[in-house]
Write a structure and sequence with these properties.
mainly beta, 6-stranded mixed β-sheet, 4-stranded antiparallel β-sheet
């Protein structure tokens, strides 16, 4: 059974940083493309960015380029999103899934809330 469990969200001031974690189970994480998504209030879920399984390919939404980075721990099956210079428009619930440009699985985790506000 594919499972995603996101954590690490919280309230942060503009310009601050957060690290989100996504614990993965139920498929071969170490060889899988992975991606982060977010859903802001009143909006559709959107792709934040994707990381290829070999770690060399990355894609980013224009709105986060240069501020967000990926990393992964294949020994623990955890996928990370490091967010820097956060802006109020980054406020959203963040989710992860497998896939590079789009989610591979229909199942989603609970997400983690990120609120950027002074």
């Amino acid at each position: 059974q594919v499972q995603f469990v996101e954590s690490g969200g919280g309230l942060v001031q503009p310009g601050g940083s957060l690290r989100l974690s996504c614990a993965v189970s139920g498929f071969s994480f170490s060889t899988s493309d992975m991606s982060w998504y977010r859903r802001a209030p009143g909006k559709e879920r959107e792709l934040v960015g994707g990381l290829s399984g070999d770690g060399y390919g990355r894609n980013w939404a224009d709105s986060v380029k240069g501020r967000f980075t990926f990393s992964r721990d294949d020994t623990k099956n955890i996928f990370y999103l490091d967010m820097n210079n956060l802006k109020p428009e980054d406020t959203a619930v963040y989710y992860c899934n497998a896939g590079y440009w789009s989610p591979k699985f229909d199942s989603w985790g609970p997400g983690t809330q990120v609120t950027v506000s002074s």
